[in-house]
Amino acid sequence: MVLDLNACIDSLFQRQLLAESVIKEICEKTKELLMSESNVVHINAPVTVVGDIHGQFYDLLEIFKIGGYCPDTNYLFLGDYVDRGLYSVETISILTCLKLRYPDRVQLVRGNHESRAVTQTYGFYTECMKKYGSAQVWHYFTDLFDYLTLSVVIDNMIFCVHGGLSPSIHTIDQIKVIDRFKEIPHEGPMADLVWSDPDPGREEFAVSPRGAGYTFGSLVVEKFLHENRMDHILRAHQLCMEGFQVLFDDQLSTVWSAPNYCYRCGNLASILEVGVNGERHFNVFEASPENERPLPTEAQRALFSNGIPTGLFANGNSNGLGANGASNGLGGNGSNGSNGFVTTNAIEAPQDPIHYFL
Ligand SMILES: [Mn+2]
Question: Where is the Serine/threonine specific protein phosphatases domain (predicted)?
Fold first, then answer.
């Protein structure tokens, strides 16, 4: 069988799943390709940077409509392709095909959800079982995740990563020597890169309320940029109600690309266009129109309300995202003691590790 990537991409754009045998072949070839990538991939602008998608495939289609299609637009995806949304399989399938088809124009960075442990709890595993009747496809993709790069540098100026900085990483060279070809560890530099968050109220590192990674403040950012002769850190990982957030005197940006997160947060999303002179422009967008996407069926709602602790479509039970009195809803574990999730612009995404490490 000859793999026809263009046909695969076309059928995914037509909302058709690929056959299991095709996914196997695509993942094997993409692993070979990723194996030769450094832990720090250097690319040039112009490039359009995309934050968390979390299985919101119809919003990803909207991103291509807004930002342009491959290979006309160069894309850098910052991770968290799967979990939470209803279409993780379609999302990771199309991104993998695009990476394999246009390896120099599409970059895929690893997020904390590109992990066996996390995807078994937050939806991707269950979705693979429902859509393919076995765990094979989940195995192919989670094996592939071990090969994804950890970071990208744009024009030697902008450091891009899913989560943030690590107290054990001072230089880019220290990232280059990490053995990344494995499941994301619970701690250490690799975990920090995918789990950490900026904290505008601090200067140094502190313990993260997520239970993995660290929070880092203004001095940490300044030191890292100075030491590595860069001028900006670009990351994803945190829901921003306005779709993006810029911190630390324009030294760090968060880009969030899942509008109306989990189909109920009511937030905006953005993609970040980085121009040839380093200029940054956030292109903000809303959720794709309801009439252009299939509504979740009762069966899909059941899929997400049974067995998944965060209960995307929980009916007022204690698992509801943002539901009153939610014990583990969005912001429900907030260290500020508030149950709301609009107290700041960038808020903590659902507190994954609180379940993850239970
Ligand atoms: Mn994340």
Answer: 109-114
How far is the centre of ligand 1, averaged over its atoms, from the C-alpha of 332 (Å)?
17
pLDDT tens string 156-179: 999 999 999 999 999 999 999 999
Active site (annotated) includes residue 232: no
CA-based max dimension of the chain: 57
Average pLDDT over residues 108-118: 98
Residues 6+ apart with CB under 8 A from 216: 164, 165, 196, 197, 198, 199, 202, 204, 205, 206
Distance, CA 3 to ligand 1 centroid (Å)?
A: 32
Centroid of ligand 1 to alpha carbon of 75 (angstroms): 18
Sign (positive/negative) of CA torsion 201, 264, 255, 282?
negative
Residue count (the chain): 358
Q: Name the catalytic one among 113, 162, 232, 237.
A: 113
Concatenated DSSP letters for 113-179?
TSSHHHHHHSSHHHHHHHHHSSSHHHHHHHHHHTTSBSEEEETTTEEEESS---TT--SHHHHHTS-
Residue 340, pLDDT > 50, answer no
CA–centroid distance, residue 352 to ligand 1 (Å): 9
- Per-residue model confidence (pLDDT) at position 300: 59
Q: How far, in Å, CA of 12 to CA of 211, rounded?
A: 36
What residue ranges define each of the domains in the chain, with the CATH number in brackets? 23-289+297-356 (3.60.21.10)
Q: What are the helix and strand counts (H, E) for the chain? A: 12, 14
> Which residue type sits at 172?
I
- Encode pLDDT of 242-276 as tens digits: 999 999 999 999 999 999 999 999 999 999 999 99
Cα(324) to centroid of ligand 1, in Å? 24
The answer to whether residue 297 scores a pLDDT higher than 70 is: no
